Amino acid sequence: YKHNVKYICNNNESFKSGREMLMKENFKIFTINNEEDVLKFEADFIIIDKYDVSSDYLKILSKKFIVMYIDDNNLLEYYPVNIVLNHNIYGKEINYKTKGKVLAGSKYTLIRSDFLNYRPIEIKENIKNILITVGGSDDFNLTEIILDRLPDDETIKHVVIAQSFKFKEKLLNMEKKNVKFHYNPNMATLIKEMDMAISACGSTLNELAYLGIPTVGIIVADNQIKLANYMKRNNCIILSDIKNLDKDISRFKYELRKELSNNMKKIIDGKGVLRIEKEIDKYEYIS
Q: Which residues pair with 68 in a beta bridge?
């Protein structure tokens, strides 16, 4: 790393897994009990990634640090920071009021390094491997409903299951020759082998877009609506729902998959991290 990077994390038990992940990556971690404790640290540049932050708090931080604030929703009337980052692909549609610079949209979309190790896929004439992922939880057992909607053919359905799946045990009993379950897998390694995906419309859509995986998207939470609609408007995904899933999948012929894949790859090129890094490096006195 060019800079001496430290993480300041909330001491709450619910953030324990995140802290453990950072420790495995050998980052320096400091825990705090309240927001004001941040002011005790010595640093030149600080990146705030936290909801429910007030404009007044950001103003206080700006008196001591160069501040980048990561924002999704534009809930503040004014952002008294040096940089506002909205890395969502629809971010350019949001008009931020700030004294600083706005980095928004697909140019700055953050893709995990695991995915950047792989090149986008080439679309095959026939579908062999299908990814099914509904996110980190599945309280309504959408995964089983999706499987029931798919034809029982020779295509292999690769189903991602997370630890907090409510119906995990029931699902695992459904495994057979053409239905394979992946429990907390390395998503990049798995996704790069897929010919298409049926996915919730969260951040996984960005990673699918980078690898050019033709996708049928399903909105499973309100905070996915903006991304899903943007992808649909730009002809990157087929936006569906449980009721129409089988009909929409039947449309997934070669030419349509190729068109969707090409559009996805045009939106996200995987260089967002490099562009953000260049903006940070403009503050050249950072130690």
A: 47, 83
> Residue 267: helix, strand or coil by DSSP?
helix
Q: CA 259, CA 117: separation in Å to the nearest integer? A: 24
Interval 130-135 mean pLDDT: 95
Report the alpha-carbon distance of residue 85 to residue 276 in Å, rounded.
9
Q: Are the C-beta atoms of residues 276 and 121 closer than 8 Å to each other? A: no
Burial of 24 (0-12, 13-18, 19+ CB in 10 A): exposed
Q: What is the pLDDT of residue 284?
A: 66
Task: Output the CA torsion 211→213→216→222 (10° steps).
Answer: -10
- What does the block give as tokens for 58? 């950001």
pTM of the model: 0.88
SS3 category, 11: coil
The Cα–Cα gap between 10 and 5 comes to: 17
Give the span between the Cα atoms of 140 and 128, in whole angstroms.
27
- DSSP letter string, 207-232: HHHHHT--EEEE--SGGGHHHHHHHH
Give yes or no for a contact between 174 and 159, defined as CB atoms under 8 angstroms apart: no
Rg (CA), the chain: 21
Q: What is the pLDDT of residues 89-123, one digit of tens each?
A: 999 999 999 989 999 999 999 999 999 999 999 99
